[in-house]
Design a protein that fits this description.
The chain has 107 residues and is mostly beta strands. It has one helix and ten strands; from the N terminus they run E-E-E-E-E-E-E-E-E-H-E.
Length: 107
């Protein structure tokens, strides 16, 4: 599995990160430690065209699921945030499947 991430700095402070999960692997829950408390997280399964978004504000922990047909639903996507990390439970919304190309971003 190839994992990568990019950090964006402004005035020496981490403001956001992006990364990907690719390669041959079995789908599994995962956690990404960011080094900052995110206000927004988006995870997209490029292979299956499914994305989940988590918003810290109004109301706290709001989540939005978008599926391949473009339908957007206000439901649990399996993304949770705790301190400076976010976790994804893949069984909730299919944000990762075996061997899928998955990208994520947090800010």
């Amino acid at each position: 599995m190839a994992l990568s991430s990019t950090q964006h700095f402004s005035d020496g402070v981490v403001r956001g990160q992006r990364g990907s999960r690719t390669g041959t692997r079995t789908a599994g829950n995962f956690t990404i430690t960011l080094g900052f408390a995110p206000k927004y997280v988006k995870v997209t399964n490029l292979t299956d065209k499914v994305s989940g978004e988590w918003f810290a504000e109004s109301p706290a922990g709001t989540q939005l699921l978008t599926i391949a047909t473009g339908v957007r639903t206000y439901v649990d996507t399996g993304i949770t945030v705790s301190g400076d990390a976010f976790s994804v439970v893949v069984a909730t919304a299919g944000l990762e499947t075996a061997n899928a190309d998955v990208v994520w971003e947090a800010s």
